[in-house]
Design a protein that fits this description.
The protein is an alpha/beta fold and 218 residues long. The protein is built from 7 helices and 9 strands; from the N terminus they run H-H-H-E-H-E-H-E-E-H-E-E-E-H-E-E. 41% of the residues are buried. Strands 1, 2, 3, 4, 5, 6, 7, 8 and 9 form a 9-stranded mixed β-sheet that branches. It has a single domain (4-211), classed as Rossmann fold. One of its GO terms (biological process) is methylation.
């Protein structure tokens, strides 16, 4: 049986160009998403503007937006075809292949990690190492921006749903926040979109901004 990671890589390789055409203007179409990313970028710059990694960057449209906001942004994705598209569309930005549960990044080197709708393809029993990696690569005082298809239920951590590309999970936003706190993060802000705003599945969409505490912000 194929690993979920391998299936996700293969499926996104197959639809990379279609995905790019579908979502390249997503921030223009979703002003609340844009506002949360803007706030994340502002907080990172206030902390000294260390580099930022967009984990699960796909074709690089969000990485490009972070770069346009003045951040030293790089993108990392599991799919070679997505990385090829990102390099084509954003030639001045560094993009590399990588697995979010085992990032090829040094300890404490980043001022920010952004992961937009990327954890949804991680099975719930494997999410712990992903959050631990996000914490490891962030400098003290660094920020995590995490967004995902969500639920207001708390009886489970996650529920599978019929994603069009690869196996995916909808996450309890309260329980995800609890897991991140257990990993060592402090919550800074959250925004939860109403399910009525999702015309396809009727899911909440959650944005969490977390901080890795440092000496100046315990």
């Amino acid at each position: 049986m194929a690993e979920p990671r391998d299936e996700t890589r293969t499926r996104y390789d197959e639809v990379a160009q279609l995905y790019y055409e579908t979502f390249k203007d997503t921030l223009r179409e979703h002003p609340f998403d844009r506002a949360m990313i803007d706030a994340f970028a502002e907080r990172v710059k206030e902390g000294g503007a260390r580099p930022v990694a967009d984990i699960g960057c796909g074709p690089g449209h969000i990485t490009g937006y972070l770069h346009a906001l003045g951040l030293d942004a790089q993108g990392i994705d599991l799919s070679p075809e997505m990385i090829a598209l990102a390099r084509r569309e954003h030639p001045g930005i560094a993009f590399s292949l990588g697995d979010m549960s085992a990032l090829d990044l040094p300890d404490g080197g980043l001022g920010g990690v952004l992961s937009r709708a990327s954890i949804i393809h991680t099975p719930p029993e494997r999410i712990g190492p992903v959050f631990a990696e996000f914490h490891r690569v962030l400098a003290p005082g660094g920020f995590l921006s995490l967004s995902f298809q969500a639920s207001d239920r708390t009886d489970r951590l996650a529920w599978p749903f019929d994603h069009r590309v690869a196996p995916a999970w909808q996450w309890s936003y309260d329980r995800v926040a609890d897991l991140l706190r257990d990993t060592g993060f402090a919550e800074v802000a959250r925004l939860v979109g109403a399910p009525e705003e999702d015309p396809v599945r009727g899911f909440h969409f959650c944005h969490l901004v977390m901080r890795k505490p440092g000496a100046e912000n315990p």
